[in-house]
Amino acid sequence: MTTFADLGIQEALCPVLEEQGIKEPTGIQREMIGRVLSGRNLIAQAPTGTGKTLAYLLPALQRIDAAKRQTQVLILAPTYELAMQIAGVARTLSREAGLGVGVLGLIGGASLARQADKLKEKPQLVTGSAGRILELARQGKLKLRDTALLVLDEFDRMLDDQNLQDTAAVVRLLPKDRQVVMVSATVSKKALERADFLGSPERITVGEDEAAQKKRSHYVVRVPFREKAGMVRRLSRRLDVQRGLVFLNRSFDAERTLARLQFDGIRAGSLLGHQNKQERQKAIADFRVGRIRLLLATDLAARGLDIGGIDYVFNLDLPDQAQTYRHRAGRTARAGAAGAVITLADDKEMAKVGQLEQKLGIRFRPLPGGETRPGKKKSAGRRRRDSSAGRKPHA
Fold first, then answer.
1. In the chain, at which end, N or C, are there fewer CB atoms within 10 A of the end residue's CB?
2. Which of 185, 187, 199, 181 is nearest to 59 (CA)?
3. Is the Cβ–Cβ distance between 386 and 266 less than 8 Å?
4. Range scoring the smallest mean pLDDT among 45-59, 335-349, 364-378
């Protein structure tokens, strides 16, 4: 068995990982850690939930000189939530291992003056959105001349039409000899072409192992389009859902569906692109601790989030692309847990379900009875209202 120590991770970090239940490296971690430590430029693709964040964070933290009070590692992410999630993981690792590395998250929507004041503490690892990083750097508040490693998390998003300009502007502020590591669960042809300006990096692709695939089930429920919201409501009552993530394609539809679910007593919240930072943070916090059972989200808002204990993903709307389905499905059955993806499709959408099967090599099975989990009986005398109110979900 390969260990983190075998890969070159220093002794101080290994017991911290063990305390978190991380005893051996995943496939992408085995492929990436040594290469990042050696300074190579990389593009790494692996499914969601396979440990890409640790694959670059562990060697990044190890390479930082804690005595040098300058930004040495810069990590760009496409959403507020992902940037702060990365900062939280890095901060915990540094603190628990006694590395003394200062970590700071810089995101739009937060106080610019407060962030500028935090930069006076000279953090060695900075993560955030390209726009806010660029703004603080141009003001002279963030110094990037000593940055040795740049990481683009969800790099296909960081190099899309919306983010490319800011990402490229940040890159121009970095030293010419900096290392670049790019990671994502999916990689588009356009993103690969645009990555050439970052030094023709080596490409690594790691698929999901067979054991993990077997822990994730894919179901389809045939239902008229106008009845989909009602079906989600019924499924949320009849299935033993601990945490359910419901994907929709448009924020407007998500808001209407949320209102219907809440009216019927379902503990639900939303994570949508137009919400402000505080609203999104509250929704995620409520979902993590079990104050809400269902979280309605669009793909842009939920991309890259690592929320444990999601046992069901519901596709109220079918994704536009097969790779988007892969991202959604990857929110469940993580870290060895089992999970299920339930797709709601009307008659016209069933052909698209068949296309997803062919492109992704998966099989959609009908959900027995249309609404019940296989092998489980419905609870007798279950009330119309959400019967699990006040029950804390499993972590």
1. N
2. 181
3. yes
4. 364-378
Structure pTM?
0.82
Helices 277-289 & 80-97, crossing angle to 10 degrees? 60
**Which runs of consecutive H residues, i.e. helices, occur in the chain?**
14-19, 27-37, 52-63, 80-97, 112-118, 130-138, 155-158, 164-172, 189-194, 210-214, 228-238, 251-263, 277-289, 299-302, 322-329, 350-360
C-alpha 389/C-alpha 267 separation (Å) is 8
- CA distances from residue 356 to 229, 262, 324 in whole angstroms, order as listed: 22, 31, 10
Contact 301, 323 (CB under 8 A): no
Amino acid at 207: G
Q: First CA to last CA across the chain, in angstroms?
A: 27
- Give how far Cα 3 sits from Cα of 121, 127, 277, Å: 35, 27, 38
Residue with tokens 């919306």: 162
Of residues 319, 341, 321, the one with CA closest to residue 330: 341
d(CA 395, CA 274): 29
Residue 266 near residue 238, CB atoms below 8 Å: no
Helices (H), 20-51: 27-37
**Are 185 and 47 in contact, with CB atoms under 8 Å apart?**
yes
**Separation of alpha carbons 317 and 166, rounded Å:** 31
297 backbone dihedrals φ, ψ, rounded to 5°: -145, 155
Is residue 85 within 8 A of residue 107, CB to CB? The reply is no
CA torsion 274-162-195-106 (nearest 10°) is -50
Domains of the chain and CATH, by start = 4-205 (3.40.50.300), 210-366 (3.40.50.300)
Q: What is the pLDDT of residues 96-144, one digit of tens each?
A: 999 999 999 999 888 999 999 999 999 999 999 999 999 999 999 999 9
The pair of structure tokens assigned to 298 is 């669009």
CA distances (Å), origin 191, targets 186, 323, 375: 10, 14, 43
Paired with 127 in beta bridges are 75, 105
**Residues shown for the chain:** 395
Whole-angstrom distance, CA of residue 240 vs CA of residue 142? 48
- Which backbone phi and psi does 219 adopt, to 5 degrees? -120, 155
CB contact at 8 A, 147 and 72:
yes
Q: In DSSP terms, which residues pair with 339 in a beta bridge?
A: 216
